[in-house]
Amino acid sequence: MLEGVRVLDLTQYLSGPSCTLLLAGLGAEVIKVEPGPTGDAARLLPIVKDGHSSYFVQQNRGKQSIGVDFSTEAGCALIAELAAESDVFIENFGHGVLAKRGLDPDTLRAATPELIYASISTFGRTGSKAHLPGFDLIAQAYAGVPALTGEPDGAPLGAGVPFGDVGAGMMAFGAISAALFSRGRSGEGQFLDISMVETIFNMHPFAVQGPSVTGGKARLRRTGRHFGSVPPAGTYQGPEGWIALHVLDNQWSRLCDAAESIGLGDMERFATAQGRADHRYELLELLETWMQSYPSDQVLIDHLESHRIPVARVVDPADAHAEPWFVEQGAVTTVEDPVRGPINVPGFPFRASSVARRDVEPLAPTLGQDTDAVLASLLGWDGDQIAAARRDGTVF
Description:
Distance between the termini: 32 Å
CATH topology of the largest domain: Rossmann fold
Number of helices: 15
Strand order of the largest sheet: 5-2-1-6-7-8
Helix content: 25-40%
Oligomer: single chain
CATH superfamily of the largest domain: Crotonobetainyl-coa:carnitine coa-transferase, domain 1
Structural class: alpha/beta
Number of strands: 13
CATH architecture of the largest domain: 3-Layer(aba) Sandwich
């Protein structure tokens, strides 16, 4: 889908690389510009073997890598030259870092008006918090995730999934795709300002508008194992492991049929959504005891699925490669890395009719492996120019 689109990627860690991973997966040429001497800081994240990080491999497969010294005028001028030859420029540096180097959106887009410049940060590039540093947990906290996660009388908890980082990466992926479409009609590029906090905040379906229209009465609270205010949705200890169940009004009668042996449908106190909410702890205990009467989790799940009840086992992502659905969907796949050996990673997250499923996962680049090739093909540098830039440390 994106064949012929060139992306200059100045991102590190997770939010930006998760975006450019999707762009590369749809055929874009992604040139990852890495600062010296160690490159993307993710190269130092676990698990590292012989200087090779499996964390980096997951987020950066299918990309090229060039090494540039960001601290020199020559290095920054080189990046600006590469930006002028690119369709998309994406970064997730701290506030003002690239502006000091002449790599801000105003400067680059003045030179190349058709350039799409995407910036990912915790609080966005405008407003009173634009200058503040932040990571995923900070974005989660300010956007309200811990406020709604955990036991009612316990501490607020951050999610085990980096919603801010990966969510912002996916938001940037969508925004870049829309900007490419717009540019195809107008010829003009865009500046895209992606905030991790706003990305997460837009995931709230009720917590903002509900209190607004009820004068604050319908305020969500932490509910622990219960899923919000709609019991019996929640997690249950099954015969072997943990089971998630999500039953709303439309599914309640089907659950009563499935649990006919305990007479659930005859219990008047559970007949309404309000009644189930008022007696949620009793309902949980009844259902959990009934579930544990089955010989195995799979027998229980098969029974519930036969009644069209939304149910799933709680899967540890470390075990996803052993779940047939993940394998058949390509939702988990394997990179045959030359240093680390086989590495299980999440597969490409959506399917398109014009995009064939990959039989072999592309590799992640070694640091600076494509420096010479990119300088020669994009900028027309000859061997002497490249050698000189290596000698003075501009590139590596």
